[in-house]
Amino acid sequence: MYGNNEIIGYLQANKILALKLDHAVSAVGQQFTNQIDTLGKGATRLLYYTSCFTDEYNDVCQQQKTEDIRFRDAIYKVLRHGDVVYDMLRIYFEEIFKFKTSEQIKRIKQCLMAENVHIAASALTSAGFTLAVASSVRIGLNLSLEISTLAGAWTSRGIVAVGVYGVIQKAADSANRLHIHYPAYYFALYAQRLEMLYFLIEPVLQQAGAIEAQWASDNDLVGIITGMIQQS
What we know:
Blueprint: H1 2-13, H2 15-48, H3 58-79, H4 84-97, H5 102-114, H6 126-140, H7 147-151, H8 157-181, H9 183-191, H10 202-207, H11 218-231
């Protein structure tokens, strides 16, 4: 009991350390929860593969096989050290700005500056502004692309397999949501074999309301871009 009180007193006297400890414990708890969720999704996906033995659900089996192959191809892009996160952001902003005039882009840039968001675009063309905005958002994002991190730190080879299938299921669920809510962006990613990695940036786009950008006004776009950069 004395030991506990001593620790509590020390942490109260060192609020910064206490805050860091609290964040560390929360992070461990969240990581454990995420790993359990990943295992559950992986087990479910493996169970779905039993449909391969029945003609009635053969389409489910074929869909999963296609997703597995496309996920593998996307991972190859990661392993080749390409910055797939930047690529997905660039493609997103290409969709957003491709029909914008120079005057619209100039106004968006001015509004961003008013929000203390400075985009270093030398040319006010849609292509130049796309690259500049994508770079500005990407610079601040801290997204791990380590495959072991995505699958979870599992010691058993069998559990690793389930964990990997859990990641693939998360990727497939995320891609399907994008297909429903923003088809143009989905097909743009699909053409580059990147749609199965969309789950990496989905939380960033969701929090900023970025999926609604397909119907957004220029002022709304300013808010979306600002929100994405402020998450960085």
